[in-house]
Amino acid sequence: MYKSIIVGTGPAGLTAAIYLARANMNPLIIEGPQPGGQLTTTTDVENFPGFPDGIMGPELMDNMRKQAERFGAEFRTGWVNSVDASSRPFKLEVEGIGELVTETLIISTGATAKYLGIPGEQDNVGRGVSTCATCDGFFFRNKEIIVIGGGDSALEEANFLTRFASKVTLVHRREELRASKIMQDRARGNAKIEWALDRTPLEVVASEQGVTGLKVRNNKTGEEELLEASGVFVAIGHHPNTGFLNGQITTDANGYIVTTPGTSETNIAGIFACGDVQDTRYRQAITAAGSGCMAAMDAEKFIESLEHSPVSL
After folding, report:
1. Can you say whether residue 300 is alpha, beta or left, with left for phi > 0 and alpha for psi between -120 and 50 degrees?
2. Contacts of residue 309, Cβ cutoff 8 Å, sequence gap at least 6
3. From the centroid of its chain, how far is CA 25?
4. What is the largest CA-CA distance in the chain?
5. Which residues contact 4 (CB under 8 A, 6 or more apart)?
6. Catalytic amino acids?
7. CB atoms within 10 A of CB 131
8. Where do the coiled-coil regions begin and end (predicted)?
9. pLDDT-based confidence at 246, cuts 50/70/90?
10. CB 11 within 8 A of CB 289
11. Chain CA centroid to CA 87, Å
12. The pTM is what?
């Protein structure tokens, strides 16, 4: 029986682990196949407070893990297949471990960026291919950038990237955009944004130094062309990693866990959510870490309320 189990080891889960371990809650943290979350695919992290010269994403996650271990957090590797949230204590079936039982559960499984699945894309993540403009835009100062997507997020990222880039080309496979009118008007009014609509991305082209462009097909003519750029930002959305919950936790229409405003509480007492799995707006390492602190403190307070509840005779 654990007082608390944390599922996921991104900045949210590791921060929760640090706080719970320091509170002598002896948390168990279940690591999935990609410990550290999306930051392990990031090179330089320059916007996390406390690192004036920046820090490599994997190094930051490793430091946070060591900090949690220092205070007594336990780490085990496994894949959570299912959670029984029908009654407390909660039961988890974990591939490679078996059944685990816990008084509180913190879900910090994150959200996975969607990729196109075209040649050269995965090979160049961190070498010019990115899914986060606010994370990586700074590295493309005075360079040409491509943004792929047609929704609000894509246009918002395109607008943001014009702060750094000499030119931003927005590529979308259709002639019409899905973005709201106000976002379209804002983007079309930006002189640094050019348009490559009705074009299907075919391949990310790169050299030994990194990305050099994007090969696309003109859907009207069928002709292929190379759009030159130093960076390709894929902005076609994210999907939260909540499938293992089997609908027991309340989510929004896109599958993100709904938490009580100002807390990490879900619809089930004793289950908390933090990080990108419940964040549809910010998706930053620092906001994830902050929400991990909230989840740990909420879980600790919940345990205390159980220990001080009156016993029926």
Report:
1. alpha
2. none
3. 26
4. 80
5. 20, 25, 27, 28, 102, 103, 104, 105, 106, 299, 303
6. 132, 135-136
7. 25
8. none
9. very high
10. yes
11. 29
12. 0.79
